[in-house]
Write a structure and sequence with these properties.
Layout (H helix, E strand, L loop, with lengths): L2 H19 L3 H29 L15 E7 L4 H13 L4 E6 L17 E6 L2 E7 L4 H12 L3
Parallel strand pairs: 1-2
Antiparallel strand pairs: 1-3, 3-4
Helix pairs in contact: 1-2
Length: 153
């Protein structure tokens, strides 16, 4: 984030704080935090879209859909269960292609739908979803699913 963007964000937050301080106490208690969150989010979106307009954020290639066997993990920084799942995905990365996607950031075009629960693990084989898990899943369970799906029938 540049100094100019920080300055713009600070100005937005200062304006939001001044508005909230002018409300009656009961209204501040109920709506104050909601207003700050919404104004902060709008300010961050404005800064992010300004960067995209200048070409600062590259868009993923639509053809970057993983081929072969791939494990896609959806995570977020604020998620405690995701912190438990992360080392499991890292252990799987030694033998398989593992793609970790932050659920709070824009998704690549090949992701059809953002998961509603995180951590969320998807097993792709040949670009096709063959298994999904919500929540923390063991390395053994994922390895077993890969073995089962890759075994000729």
């Amino acid at each position: 984030m540049t100094d100019e963007q920080r300055k713009q964000l600070r100005e937005h937050l200062d304006r939001a704080s001044a508005i909230v301080r002018s409300w009656p106490a009961w209204m501040r208690k109920v709506l104050g935090r909601i207003a700050l969150v919404l104004v902060s989010w709008a300010a961050l979106q404005a800064v992010a879209t300004a960067g995209e307009a200048r070409g600062a954020t590259p868009r993923p290639d639509p053809d970057s859909m993983p081929t072969g066997t791939a494990i896609v993990g959806f995570t977020a920084d604020w998620c405690p269960a995701c912190r438990v799942q992360a080392p499991i995905w890292q252990a799987l990365a030694a033998r398989h292609k593992v793609i970790i996607l932050d659920n709070t950031k824009p998704m690549p075009p090949w992701v059809r739908q953002r998961p509603r629960a995180i951590p969320h693990t998807v097993l792709l084989i040949g670009g096709r979803t063959v298994r999904t898990w919500k929540g923390v899943v063991s390395r053994e369970a994922i390895e077993a699913a890969i073995t089962l799906e890759e075994t000729p029938r």
